[in-house]
Amino acid sequence: MTGRLHRAVCPGSFDPVTNGHLDIIGRAAKLFDEVVVAVGVNKSKSRLFSPEERLQMLTRACSPWDNVRIDGFTGLLTDFCLEHDIDAIVKGLRAVSDFDYELQMAQMNSSLAPVETIFVPTSPEWSFLASSLVKEVATFGGDVTGLVPEFVREQLVARLAERDGAQ
Ligand code: PNS
User: Fold this and answer.
1) Cα gap 153→135, rounded to integer Å
2) Which of 23, 38, 56, 126 is most buried (CB neighbours < 10 A)?
3) How far apart are CA 165 and CA 97, in angstroms?
């Protein structure tokens, strides 16, 4: 690496990981020596998958990249960055509508710690993709093949069937 940023974090909820996330993670893996995919536990959002399940899915989905590792965090992202000597936060931008909130977070994060946020434009192929939409489509029986890795699709369908059976 010839630049000055070495270790980046790709943070998110990853409930579940989608091919859009993997596009950004794979591209970050080409830009940085090391990428940490960090699963945030945001208590205000209800999740379909537990943090452990999300970590396991990411570990499997990211196995092709030898410079990507998976971790979890519960507090501030900037604290995680300081603890792990991370100098960049990589965020995918799907559309202009993502920008306002992401800019606000980037500016807040840079006021809290010496961490740069790098925005990576999502590939047009995945610009409509969001975990929340994948869950909604799958909830109503829609086919999400090709939007998430196949093993994630299988776990998603199984979890929704379990959830519906329990109701
Ligand atoms: O996939 P998401 O839900 O958009 O991920 C959001 C996440 C986890 C990246 C974000 O909520 C986050 O960074 N949470 C950690 C708490 C924190 O640092 N908050 C201050 C942000 S300025």
Assistant:
1) 10
2) 38
3) 36
Q: Which of 13, 45, 89, 97 to mutate to test the pocket of ligand 1 (most atoms within 8 A of CB)?
A: 13
Residues 136-150: pLDDT tens digits? 999 999 999 999 999
Quote the ligand 1 centre to 147 CA distance (angstroms): 23
Count the Cβ atoms, other than its own, within 10 Å of residue 166. Answer: 6
* Own/partner pairs, 27-31, CB within 8 angstroms, 24+ separation: 27/120, 28/90, 28/120, 29/65, 29/67, 29/68, 31/90, 31/118
What interhelical angle do 131-139 and 150-166 show, nearest 10? 60
pTM: 0.95
**18 pocket-lining for ligand 1 (C-beta < 6 Å):** no
Question: Please, are residues 24 and 92 in contact by the beta-carbon 8 Å criterion?
Answer: yes
